Each structure stands twice: as structure tokens, then as C-alpha cells.
Amino acid sequence: MNASPMPTVGVIMGSQSDWETMKHGCEQLEALGIAYEARIVSAHRTPDRLADYAKTARERGLKVIIAGAGGAAHLPGMCAAWTTLPVFGVPVESRTLKGQDSLLSIVQMPAGVPVGTLAIGKAGAINAALLAASVLSLSNDELAARLKGFRDKQTHSVAEVPVG
Ligand code: RP5
């Protein structure tokens, strides 16, 4: 489900292998009725695709970019270098270092080029989507209401007494 035909969130990832993680963020965007596009854009393997994507993102109507990558995860930072849109980085869990390499690669940006860095893996992908929703809700009251509804439902779903 997309609230509008024009995507406002761009979800990019360095590899097909990142989709297993990033799809959770896309599902969260869909649940909130946010139009998005998902693309494979690699900082290392397709550098020109990345430059084109990030440089044209604002004029194409995107408001927020979510970038997921693993290992030497330069995608979010290089994307942020090409655009002044908000960029949220999702460290994908790597096989060898469990995503700690991804996290440190994304979070340690030099002053002047920000990337909002989320948690490693699925939680990070979901929270990146929720953070994007928060940003978009600043100028969209209907989305703000849906976001509040999501939070309320989540709160009510937490049992007070453990079972089992
Ligand atoms: C990164 O390298 C990607 O973001 C991915 O997380 C990691 C491994 O990529 P593949 O070798 O699975 O394509 O660029």
C-alpha cells in the first residue's frame, strides 16, 4: 500500500543480500501508508549509480533516504555526501563481524556530513522507517495520527504479567 504514487522515502541498499534486513523497514513504511522506492545502490560496485541517485533525490521528490549496508558500509555516508536530505543508515549484520564493522563504518562520520545511525539489523531497519515517518509527519497531520495510532497499539499490546 502506498499513500501516494510519488515516493517520499528512498530505501537503498548495497546488495541484494541486504534485502532480507531492509524489507522489514519497507514493510513498516507500507504499514504507515508511506510511499517509498527500494533500490540496490552500491557505494563500491555501482558508484555512478549512487551519485546519480543521491544527487537527483531531492528534485525527484524524496524527503528522506534510508540506506542499509554491511561490512565496509560506506553507502549511507557517501549518499549523505551527495545530498542534504536526511539520511538514515542501517548497519546490516555481516557474517564475519556480526555487523559491528557495519555499525562503526556508518556511525563515525566526520563533522559536517551527518548520517543518523540506527541499530544493527532488523530493529535498525524498522526504526529507520519509523524515524522517516516522524520526519514526514512534521508536515503531514494524517501521517502523524497514524504514527500515534501505531504507538498506542504497541503500548496496548504489552502484557503487564508474563505468561508461561
Ligand atoms: C556491502 O557488502 C553490502 O551492503 C552487503 O551488506 C555486503 C555483502 O554484499 P554481497 O557480497 O552479499 O553482495 O556492500
Automatic annotation (TrEMBL):
<feature type="binding site">
    <location>
        <position position="18"/>
    </location>
    <ligand>
        <name>substrate</name>
    </ligand>
</feature>
<dbReference type="GO" id="GO:0006189">
    <property type="term" value="P:'de novo' IMP biosynthetic process"/>
</dbReference>
<comment type="pathway">
    <text>Purine metabolism; IMP biosynthesis via de novo pathway; 5-amino-1-(5-phospho-D-ribosyl)imidazole-4-carboxylate from 5-amino-1-(5-phospho-D-ribosyl)imidazole (N5-CAIR route): step 2/2.</text>
</comment>
<feature type="binding site">
    <location>
        <position position="15"/>
    </location>
    <ligand>
        <name>substrate</name>
    </ligand>
</feature>
<dbReference type="Pfam" id="PF00731">
    <property type="entry name" value="AIRC"/>
</dbReference>
<dbReference type="InterPro" id="IPR000031">
    <property type="entry name" value="PurE_dom"/>
</dbReference>
<feature type="binding site">
    <location>
        <position position="45"/>
    </location>
    <ligand>
        <name>substrate</name>
    </ligand>
</feature>
<comment type="similarity">
    <text>Belongs to the AIR carboxylase family. Class I subfamily.</text>
</comment>
<comment type="function">
    <text>Catalyzes the conversion of N5-carboxyaminoimidazole ribonucleotide (N5-CAIR) to 4-carboxy-5-aminoimidazole ribonucleotide (CAIR).</text>
</comment>
<keyword id="KW-0413">Isomerase</keyword>
<feature type="domain" description="PurE">
    <location>
        <begin position="7"/>
        <end position="158"/>
    </location>
</feature>
<protein>
    <recommendedName>
        <fullName>N5-carboxyaminoimidazole ribonucleotide mutase</fullName>
        <ecNumber>5.4.99.18</ecNumber>
    </recommendedName>
</protein>
<dbReference type="GO" id="GO:0034023">
    <property type="term" value="F:5-(carboxyamino)imidazole ribonucleotide mutase activity"/>
</dbReference>
<dbReference type="InterPro" id="IPR033747">
    <property type="entry name" value="PurE_ClassI"/>
</dbReference>
<keyword id="KW-0658">Purine biosynthesis</keyword>
<dbReference type="InterPro" id="IPR024694">
    <property type="entry name" value="PurE_prokaryotes"/>
</dbReference>
